[in-house]
Amino acid sequence: MEPVMENEEHFSWREVKLPSSIPEPEPEPELEREKGDRRRGRNILIAVDHGPNSKHAFDWALIHLCRLADTIHLIHAVSSVNNAIVYEMSQVMMEKLAVEALEVAMIRSEAQIVEGDAGKAICMEAERLKPAAVVMGTRGRSLMQSVLQGSVSEYCFHHCKSAPVIIVPGKEAGDASLI
Question: Which residues form the UspA domain (predicted)?
């Protein structure tokens, strides 16, 4: 495990080993105009959890935002990365999303399970990656619940300074799946 640091706060995290069925990308020849700071794909950070609104935001990002050469970085915050049950459930979810990203949009994925406060961890990862966008779903709370308990998406909206934050509204119960 490698600690991630910001303002004296430490977050533990573990890389997710994605299935071997997802091939490593072959190096692509660079065009003359893509030398230096310019490159083919973008990094897109997608915050995920086990809820349906998170899956809806993931699907939305694959359909409306991602391009072929992009890399999506999945991030999931948990209370403890050392809890085997929580870690395994989270890893299975990340593997499914990575396989879906490859099958649906032919997009490469990287995944991290982070220990600690979700909002702060997402903002720190965005600061490290400098992604083209941070995508997340809503929790589905009422206005009053969000005011009283706080909201990860609202925290990220106000504190992520290195990338635009896209908050995808939750799908209604009768809406068809995007994918």
Answer: 42-169
